[in-house]
Amino acid sequence: MKIDVENLSWGVPGKTIVHNVSLTVQPGETVGLIGPNGSGKSSLLRCIAGLRTPTAGVVRYDGADIASWPARERARKMAFVEQTADTESDLRVADVAMLGRTAHRSMWRGPDTADHEIVAAALGRLDLTALADRSWRELSGGERQRTHLARALAQRTEGLLLDEPTNHLDVRHQLDLMELASRTPQTVVVALHDLALAARYCDRLVLMHGGTVVANGPAVEVLTAPLLRDVFDVDAEIGRDSLGHLAVGYR
Q1: Which domain holds residue 24?
Q2: What predicted TM-score, i.e. pTM, was given to this entire model?
Q3: Which 3 state secondary structure label does DSSP give 182?
Q4: CB hemisphere CA count around 212 (13 angstroms)
Q5: What is the mean pLDDT of residues 48-72?
Q6: Between the CA of residue 89 and those of 92, 110, 112, 152, 155, what are the distances in Å?
């Protein structure tokens, strides 16, 4: 699925949080949104997901303006995973993942065999099979995050929007998640704080600052010492690690 964001702005009374952002994500591309806290990454993702209505501009999926789409139609095309998610219900892990199938069946029909198979596959991809019957309330923060990622995979959408999905995850699961994001045929936009993960796994990086896009391109063009100094106010050294991956060090 192709995502087009054209001249998009969004804000709250008295404050513009996302200002005149234009961005195109090609089908199957994994794009990383990076930038300091408050740069507008999460707000932009919510606008792309259709969860917030832009004050200006448009979001298109495969050329179609999503402004008038009902939530159910958007959920069949795009899955969104927020930074932190909670529920008051005492659901099992498998039940939370099954919520991803809601948009694909009528409100009068319960899960069928195909739904259960899709959920089982999603739990397996996130290393959650052994926790399928565990209560949500018993999970660690990392296990909860992976459960919501499994729900998004079970949605079987053409696009994935991930807001800081590596939060609360240990190193192994961070790497597993980003490997999944980089290899899936879905179109992925992922907001990340970890610049090394972003450089290693994303096809392209979009650097945001003050609600605007200040750089857009391959990691080697975006992660430069002058840009990192301007945006993050840090002195950085850019090099390669022993495996050849782009590495960022700070002085």
Answers
A1: 3-84+157-250
A2: 0.93
A3: helix
A4: 5
A5: 96
A6: 9, 18, 22, 19, 20
We report the CATH number of the domain holding residue 217 as 3.40.50.300
Indicate whether 17 belongs to any domain: yes
φ/ψ bin of 135: left (φ > 0), alpha (ψ from -120 to 50), beta (otherwise): beta
State the CB neighbour count (10 A cutoff) for residue 192: 26
Residue 134 lies in a domain: no
> Residue 218 has what DSSP assignment?
-
**C-alpha distance from residue 81 to each of 167, 194, 204 (Å):** 12, 17, 20
Beta strands in 66-198 (DSSP E): 78-81, 159-163, 187-191
pLDDT at 85: 61
**DSSP-derived 3-state class of residue 10:** strand
Per-residue pLDDT tens digits for 74-108? 999 999 998 766 666 679 999 999 999 988 877 67
